[in-house]
Design the sequence.
């Protein structure tokens, strides 16, 4: 992570952020519990441009676009066919071929797990791309704390060329970002950002032990982040709000999962897919008005933050839902 401007950036590293320029297709970044990777390449010179455009004439539009972004470096395109008819293409520089095999296995495993949670997944096409980090930031315009994202229907994971690869964090990143892709398919791209991010963090794995302390510290000086600011993504939030937004989203969805279960969450996603109004879909699936849900969530979080100065005071997430 390149942004070293202050301690708040250290908090951002802990939470796993993601964001979106648009509700359905733009930025879905996360920053992992440990630094997962940073950014890499893109410097385009006139001669190499001429070479790339000559090569692009013989490529499909997608491959031509990738060739123009990655330069003259050879790319490996690996098809990944999944159950339910979904098809992905794994795109990686050839020097990361071994890592590409790991990613393919993780994708297949994650798809199987998500099918077990949500049932049949509407078929969709996407790609997952391993990219050097400089190219990543120049292509996406993502904030400096972003370590992976679901961007324009494509999962992109930036990696540093000259640093060791942390496979555990790669696996978590793939699982998190592929969950965004599946939730988008299940809701036809209409899932609110806080639900999308909360579920992706919950599915990703164990909660970061620093997460609740980070949120509590934020709430002792600030109001909870309004859900209307978390509808389409988090990249436009003030940097001081980002860790709280991710923590709040995760805790809210932990409460929803614990209270209502995945069956009702799946029903909610189906209503969104059928073009129900978001508020009506929420009330129909969970038998609770969304405004009422948010009022209770905010009140409970504020009370919890003020109860004790202890850094790791317990929060029973079931109390977040009335």
Sequence:
């Amino acid at each position: 992570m390149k942004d070293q401007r202050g301690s708040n950036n250290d908090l951002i590293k802990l939470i796993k952020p993601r964001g979106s320029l648009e509700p359905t297709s733009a930025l879905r970044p996360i920053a992992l519990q440990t630094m997962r990777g940073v950014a890499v390449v893109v410097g385009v010179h006139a001669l190499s441009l001429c070479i790339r455009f000559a090569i692009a004439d013989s490529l499909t539009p997608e491959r031509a676009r990738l060739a123009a972004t990655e330069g003259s470096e050879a790319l490996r395109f690996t098809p990944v066919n999944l159950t339910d008819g979904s098809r992905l293409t794994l795109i990686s520089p050839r020097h990361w071929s071994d890592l590409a095999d790991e990613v393919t296995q993780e994708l297949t495993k994650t798809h199987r797990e998500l099918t077990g949670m949500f049932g049949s997944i509407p078929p969709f096409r996407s790609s997952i791309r391993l990219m050097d980090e400089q190219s990543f930031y120049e292509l996406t315009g993502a904030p400096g704390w972003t370590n992976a994202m679901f961007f324009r229907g494509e999962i992109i994971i930036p990696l540093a060329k000259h640093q060791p690869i942390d496979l555990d964090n790669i696996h978590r990143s793939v699982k998190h970002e592929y969950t965004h892709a599946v939730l988008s398919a299940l809701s036809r791209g209409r899932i609110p950002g806080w639900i999308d991010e909360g579920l992706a963090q919950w599915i990703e794995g164990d909660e970061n032990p620093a997460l609740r302390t980070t949120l509590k510290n934020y709430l002792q000086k600030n109001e909870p982040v309004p859900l209307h600011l978390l509808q389409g993504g988090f990249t436009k939030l003030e940097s001081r709000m980002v860790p709280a937004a991710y923590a709040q989203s995760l805790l809210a969805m932990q409460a929803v999962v614990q209270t209502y279960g995945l069956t009702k969450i799946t029903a909610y996603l189906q209503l969104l897919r059928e073009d129900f109004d978001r508020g009506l879909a929420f009330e129909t699936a969970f038998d609770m008005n969304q405004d009422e849900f948010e009022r209770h969530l905010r009140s409970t979080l504020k009370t919890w933050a003020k109860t004790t100065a202890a850094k790791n005071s317990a929060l029973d997430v079931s109390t977040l839902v009335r």
